[in-house]
Amino acid sequence: MCILYMAEPSSAAEWRQAFSETVLELEFRQWPDVGDPRDVEYLIAWKPMPRLMEQFPNLKVLYSAGAGVDQFDLSDLPEHVSLVRLVDGTMADIMAEYVIFAVLALHRDMLDYQISQRDRAWAPLPIIPACERRVGVMGLGNLGQVALERLQPLGFQLSAWNRSPKDVPGGRCFVGVEQLHEFLGQCDILINLLPLTPETTGILNANTLGALPMGAGIVNVGRGAHVIEKDLLAALDTGKVGGAVLDVLDQEPPQPDHPFWRHPRVLLTPHIASNVQVKGAVDVVARNVYRERRGLQLLNTVDRSKGY
Ligand code: NDP
Ligand code: OXD
Structure pTM? Predict the structure, then answer.
């Protein structure tokens, strides 16, 4: 029985160490030293690989080395193989830090002050108190819920948009496509924490951006393909969107001539809002080995019918 690690090679030693301390009965192997491929029952991978079952006929669980699973072709994965996300509380804490940073940067006009600084202009803007700023989160999953909880003590007016109704501290949860435009219409700052699925691809487009209040800020920490980039660019150029903090793009890294690199109203980071935490991830695997032996439902499994 072995677990094959096929994700970021520079982190492999850390994973090996964590496995040796935690799941003693699982032999850890690192791609490309597979040994006998029939031994591989568990696989940790980030990028998709073709003909998985031909390579590893005894595969039982594919662990995504991250929260997102949009990189996998789910139709290529037989039903008896579980797809599991390696998410933990620390990953959500780290994401919440980024969200707070991005919301405060937009709330306190940091994009304007960067421009002023470059121009050597000492140009104070009116201060808007947090209690007058409406902040909305799209996607109330593991990450979205913690982000909302951490935003609450800052005093913003909070709301969220989700497929199913969930509690929003001090605010409203808008539900389903029918309430999307109503939700957007009351977001001074919008945070995207949706998973990428056929339903959410391109969800931030000319039509939905047009539903935001004039000058709204956007934080995209979901996936680049949630945003139609040319529509966002147009909205930034007209001032409909006042500023965007983007951690994810359709193509990463973007081409050298991509307009977001130098756009004064865009703050770009290289997909670092959060990442998989090795200790927490190995703990998920250990708990799942325990659960599998007792015939219990595995933790963090992806619902194939929903795609997340
Ligand atoms: P979860 O699967 O835990 O949560 C997804 C949430 O989105 C659920 O609340 C779900 O609703 C909601 N949702 C899904 N589809 C729709 C829809 N069509 N309409 C409305 N709501 C919908 O995901 P996580 O919170 O763990 O992660 C979210 C995403 O964050 C990841 O998929 C990944 O793309 C991104 N990410 C980005 C990182 C970065 O560094 N930038 C790092 C980690 C993750 P319901 O509750 O009803 O099921
Ligand atoms: C993830 C990510 O999905 O880092 O884990 O984007």
Answer: 0.97
